[in-house]
Write a structure and sequence with these properties.
The complex is a heterodimer. By secondary structure, chain A is α+β, with helices and mostly antiparallel strands. Chain A has five helices and six strands, in the order H-E-H-E-E-H-E-E-E-H-H. Chain A is elongated. Chain B is of the alpha+beta class. The chains are: A alpha+beta, B alpha+beta.
Chain lengths: 192, 370
């Protein structure tokens, strides 16, 4: 574990000459019946409809996510919330991508909802729409420190409850640990 | 209410696990009991948390591939397939037909091996000791094929991004066919022991019922969803790795109780053997690796790819920033999501039933905790 930088070094050193590819996702606009309905209903609270590699996603304002989830569940049959997760982009003012993956059994379609939230912002919970969001949001809280407003049980789920820090944030290096917790609870100097 | 007793409470809190043989690893369940009745449960998980997703961000794409085997370690081939498919999606390449056929064979063999472990341990928890020895015997044959193919039995790392590393060995087809011929009568044998067994039926029927709507609500997938009557399998709904070429049925049941989940999984093993037979008949000739460079460097972008793992929908959401390491790897583990429904399944039931329900969930704690 300690030498995590070493194996990555040789491949990284090689490609120096070729021009850098554009650092944005080459997504194309997504348009069909569903986007029309969503546009009519949510207007400019949905800022983007895109497709990348054949996978549809939309970008919405944080406060619109739960209403969209509810609308999609009740009116468009997206009745299965597959996953809730986050991605950390520390340099961005709205630091986190919050990603919801949805599936519709009757349409046999998948769709992702993305929203951007800042550090300390509390997005609304989706538990009232999809029960499965309970543990999934707890994991997001555990790993990223995003608290969900209105969640019935906002505690850590995988890490010990007293643990300090959020492991999947980018400023939390792979060697970081809550030394105090480790010493108090495991009786060893360090877990490394 | 009766007059106040010595304890002055009707609720008893009982701690089950983390080191309890029937929790299949290190699951801790805090049970609230009213006599024999369960009035509430709380799962405490994370004892096996290794930070797999964090490790993924600090490894190259190829280096991370062996780590995914260690999540659901009884179905490591499925984990590997899901990861390879997700990275291939980002790279926009497809494994060649020969590699796809071999992938299907090994993945289905692994589904059988995984279901066998489930059957053995589930029956053991209920009190039927014999099936465990039977299933381990057949599982051994499946693992032997993995070992002969790639050298490993449990955490196989059988596939590579873009295809396969190894060409199949000489008697591969013969071994696989022999396994299928041997295996189907063995399933009959297990069924003879259990299916109509009065104790088995009594312990499983109407225990841990989860309806189709509840399954969708909780995101429960795999055999558990199918046992509730939803005919949904990702291999059919969104075929990958050439599954559309093979003929097979999706076994379903109606009641969504523990017995139904048993019958669904038993039939699934037969269907897996059927797929393997078709796949091994005509493994196409050709290369085993697609056009993937030595350095795997997907363009900036993201993708969510999921497969039908033995436990349910196993998804990988990978974000690439254009470098050699994934920017973010999210694993959507079926065991973790399915385990959440435990409370709904046992609440109001008897305390003895929780062992049956944990068994029927078919969780692997390595995947729950990652």
């Amino acid at each position: 574990m300690a030498d995590e930088q070493k194996p990555a070094a040789p491949p990284a050193a090689k490609p120096a000459a070729p021009p850098k590819p554009p650092a944005v996702m080459a997504a194309v606009p997504w348009e069909d019946d569903l986007t029309g309905v969503l546009k009519g209903r949510f207007g400019d609270r949905i800022t983007e409809f895109s497709t990348y590699l054949g996978q549809n996603f939309l970008v919405a304002a944080p406060e619109a996510v739960v209403p969209i989830l509810e609308f999609l569940k009740l009116e468009a049959d997206f009745d299965y919330l597959v996953d809730v997760t986050a991605v950390d982009w520390p340099k961005r003012p709205e630091r986190f991508d919050l990603v919801y993956v949805l599936y519709s059994f009757s349409r046999n379609q998948r769709l992702r909802i993305k929203t951007f939230v800042g550090d300390g912002v509390k997005p609304a919970t989706a538990v009232l729409v999809h029960l499965t969001a309970n543990w999934l949001e707890r994991e997001v809280f555990d790993m990223f420190g995003i608290e969900f407003e209105g969640h019935p049980d906002m505690r850590r789920i995988l890490m010990p409850e007293e643990w300090q820090g959020y492991p999947l944030r980018k400023d939390y290096s792979i060697l970081t640990q809550d030394t105090q917790w480790v010493q108090e609870n495991l009786g060893i100097e360090s877990g490394q | 209410m009766a007059e106040s007793t010595f304890l002055d409470s009707t609720e008893l809190v009982l701690n089950m696990g983390p080191q309890h043989p029937s929790t299949h690893g290190v699951l801790r369940v805090i049970l609230k009991l009213d006599g024999e009745k369960i009035t509430g449960t709380e799962c405490v998980i994370g004892y096996l948390h290794r930070g797999v997703e964090k490790i993924g961000e600090n490894r190259t794409y190829a280096q991370f591939a062996p780590y995914v085997d260690r999540m659901d370690y009884v179905a490591s081939v499925s984990n590997g397939l899901g990861y390879c498919l997700a990275v291939e999606k980002l790279l926009n390449v497809e494994a060649p037909p020969r590699a796809q056929a071999v992938r299907v064979i090994l993945t289905e063999l692994n589904r059988i091996a995984s279901h066998l472990v489930w059957l053995g341990t589930h029956a053991l928890d209920i009190g039927a000791i014999t099936p465990l020895f039977y299933v381990m015997r057949e599982r051994e044959d499946a693992l032997n094929i993995f070992e002969k193919y790639c050298g490993a039995r449990l955490t196989t790392h059988a596939f590579r991004i873009g295809g396969l590393q190894y060409e199949i060995y000489e008697e591969f087809e013969k071994d696989v066919k022999a396994f299928c011929d041997m295996f189907l009568p063995k399933v009959d044998e297990y069924e003879e022991l259990l299916t109509e067994n009065r104790i088995w039926k009594g312990r499983l029927t109407n225990v841990g019922i989860l309806s189709a709507d509840e399954c969708k609500e909780y995101g429960v997938t795999g055999p558990m969803l199918r046992a509730a009557g939803v005919k949904w399998d990702i291999r059919k709904a969104m075929p990958y790795s050439g599954y559309e070429k093979y003929e097979f049925d999706i076994p379903t049941a109606r009641n969504g109780d523990t017995y139904d989940r048993y019958t669904v999984r038993m039939q699934e093993m037969r269907q897996s053997a059927r797929i393997i037979r078709q796949a091994v008949e005509g493994i196409p000739e050709g290369p085993i690796m697609g056009k993937v460079g030595k350095v795997i460097k997907p363009p900036v972008g993201e993708a969510y790819v999921s497969i039908e793992a033995p436990k349910g929908e196993l998804g990988y959401y990978i974000v690439s920033d254009g470098s050699t390491q994934p920017y973010r790897v999210r694993v959507r583990p079926p065991s973790f999501v399915n385990l959440q429904a435990l409370d709904r399944m046992v609440r109001g039931g008897l305390v003895a039933d929780i062992v049956a329900v944990i068994g029927t969930l078919d969780i692997v704690l390595g995947e729950v905790d990652r």
